[in-house]
Amino acid sequence: MKSNLNQFVPSEVCLQCDGCCRFKEENSAWRPKMANEEITQLRKTGLADLILSKETFSKEGAIKTVSCRGEHLCSFFNPQDHTCRIYHARPFECELYPFLLTSKDGRMAVYVHRMCPFIQQKRATRDFDDYVAYLKQFFQEPEVFAFLKINPDLAGDYSPYQEELEYLFTLPADLYTP
Asked: How far is it, in rounded angstroms, from Cα 83 to Cα 162?
């Protein structure tokens, strides 16, 4: 599934930030995962073969990191210009961020990462509320629903970071069963 998800955070804001795609630990829970379908889609591009020739994913499907100056960077992150080398085919989790899928009471739920500087600026705005309403509709689309149904592992375990997250809404009960 190549989603048609509208981005909440403008690209120019992301390119100025130094938060995403960088992790304190090599095996950080914040590392995005890619569904098999996304990996297959990525392999169809010429650059992906070169990038994916390395061992890029953990056995759990999370993108491995590369150590750089005391940080652990996403394997696809270009630290010179803060861009993603696979932006056009980036993981669904990356498209969705700073919104996250996690489990709540045995169901898939959508949260927002309150540490994102853009969210801190926009959280109490109509734009934010409108985007949450848009997300509720987006997750009802049959293609998106089917994609998440076969990829329940995309709901990450962010339980150690609950103070950084804000619960927004729960997806339909028949979507996710842990």
From this structure: 28
Residue 175, pLDDT > 70, answer no
Residues 15 and 86 in one domain: yes
Task: Report how far residue 144's alpha carbon sits from residue 93's, in angstroms, rounded to the nearest whole number.
Answer: 13
Q: Is 25 found in the same domain as 80?
A: yes
Instruction: Give me the pLDDT at residue 178, please.
Output: 47
Q: What is the pLDDT of residue 40?
A: 77
Residue 46, domain extent? 11-90
pTM attached to this predicted model: 0.89
Q: In what order do the strands lie in the sheet with 65-68?
A: 22-23, 71-74, 65-68
Strand ranges in the chain using DSSP code E only, listed in sequence order: 22-23, 65-68, 71-74, 77-78, 83-84, 99-104, 107-113, 165-170
Query: 71-74 and 65-68: which strand pairing?
Result: antiparallel
103 and 162 in a single domain? The answer is: yes
